[in-house]
Amino acid sequence: MTEEKKLKEIVGAGNLSHDQAILGEYSEDLSFVPKVRPRYVVKPGNVEQVQKIVEWANETLTPLVPVSSGPPHFRGDTVPNVGGAVIIDLSRMKKILRIDSFNRLAMVEPGVTFAELQSELAKAGLYAYMPLCPRSSKSVIGSMLEREPITMPAHHWDCTDPMLCAEIVFGTGDKLRGGEAAGPDTIEEQWKMGKAQMAPMGLGQFNEHRLISGAQGTIGIVTWSTLKCRFLSKMNRTFLVPSEHIEPLIDLSYKLLRIRLGDHLFLLNGLNLACLLAKTSGRIEELRAILPPWVLIVSFEGYGELPEDKVHYQEADLMDMAQSCQIEPKTTLAGASADELSVILSRPSEEPYWKLRLKGGCNDIFFLTTLDKIPKFVSAISLLMCTHRYPVENMGVYIQPVVQGTSCHCEFNLYHEPARQNELDNIRWMVNEGSRDLAKQGGFFSRPYGAWADFAYTGASEAVAMQRKMKKIFDPKGILNPGKLCL
Questions:
Q1: Residue 318 to residue 316: CA distance in whole angstroms
Q2: For residue 434, what is the DSSP state?
Q3: What angle in degrees, to the nearest 10, is found between the helix axes of 307-324 and 247-258?
Q4: CA torsion, points 28, 31, 34, 39, in degrees to nearest 10?
Q5: How many domains does the chain have?
């Protein structure tokens, strides 16, 4: 039986493609990884089909590249590193398997996007934690596996939040339900016993959710996951705290985070705020000319008993803390409304995706650090850009405290016109080589996509040895996304 016939037998003829135009879409993205065309794109519909595809790949030694989100892709992790690979596109698996209002969680398959999940959760009075305005095609599970930071640091207790339990098909073809979901009973039988698949820890001392988190599909394929949700707000108050300099906003952020005050909490420079608020390049240029250089966004969400009282006392505390930092929270700025921004933050990005509105192209540099070091990194990357003649005014900045403010996600968005080759060459240098300088200054590239892996693992020989050992255990023939990370 030919390879194509075997795959068609597994997923059906309509779910296998070798159309050159479709293969071309998966052969590259908006990152700078080399273009590699896959052999097929296959779309399984359930976990049994995923297992059969993995077993077939082991028999034929065919590389598999898992993909769950739709285009555009930005980081190179869904582009094959080697020829002859098969894309295993999980977007057909779109079931929302369960919504549990009592335990505030949902169970979803990998093809479910934030827009699809939020509308169903709202019917149950719940809402999912989201990264900052994800694109409409972004998979919920994909976002959690990539550890994209949520915008509510006071609710963020662990780097893998809001991911809980998961069903994983490893590179061997074996299936494992992790955490509380493990056991001989089916998921439905567990529900009858009162289990909710909440606790991700287990089996024993083995926390398998940490094994697959940030692994770029090199260890296993997640076929469903549970995730933490929050109550849908009955009342919301959002504030914009402007400043000419970032330091006072960092001081206020520390005060808020220390007592876990507030819900949404993050910093943007004026350009990124303009990109969120406006949909056209012309309007973005108009807005950034009148917006302040830096803005801290803080919201208070009222739910449960006495939601108005909760919001009002937190608002009063914010005003006192801001006054001590000699800054003033506002509900409107020139060209910006807190109410408008609150609506934008409550859903995925409208089209065009907010990072592509200014110039049509965007590449990101992001890493973990602490809030007090942010001014140093802003100065460092500005100097790098001047050296390589990239206009600093085209750089967006997004600072997101994580894990209750113990650290933060620092992101620089480099906007450019894809057709301008000289500009693109400068961006490529910044992303691939300039990032190395930021790492030397203390930036922790915990999600090393593409060329970042070259320096992220420098000096981490023990971590490299351990990751390669884990790879041999769970994917001994190396079929899952070979060539990523340090593998």
A1: 5
A2: I
A3: 140
A4: -20
A5: 3
pLDDT at 274: 98
Per-residue pLDDT reduced to its tens digit, 296-327? 999 999 988 888 999 999 999 999 999 999 99
Give CA–CA dist 375/39, Å, rounded.
46
Contact 95, 109 (CB under 8 A): yes
Same domain, 263 and 409: yes
Parallel, antiparallel, or unpaired for β 96-100 and 175-177? Answer: unpaired
- The rounded distance, in Å, linking the Cα atoms of 127 and 145 is 19
pLDDT at 1: 59
What pLDDT, on the 0 to 100 scale, is given for residue 106? 98
* R_g over Cα of the chain: 23
Reading the block at residue 458, the tokens are 């420098």
Ranges of the chain whose pLDDT falls below 70: 1, 204-205
Angle formed by the axes of helices 374-387 and 247-258, nearest 10°: 140
What does 113-180 look like in DSSP terms, one character per residue?
Answer: BHHHHHHHHHHTTEEE---SS--TT-BHHHHHHTTPPPS-GGG--STTTTEEEEEEEETTS-EEE-GG
Domain-located, residue 474 = no
DSSP-derived letter for residue 79 is S
Contact 182, 197 (CB under 8 A): no
Please tell me whether residue 200 adopts helix, strand or coil conformation.
coil
Query: Residue 335 in contact with residue 286, Cβ under 8 Å?
Result: yes
376: CATH: 3.40.462.10
Residues 253, 174 share a domain: no
Sort strands 407-416 and 361-369 into parallel, antiparallel or unpaired: antiparallel
Q: Which domain holds residue 61?
A: 3-89
CA distance to 12, 53, 126, 170, per residue, from 174 (Å): 22, 12, 34, 6
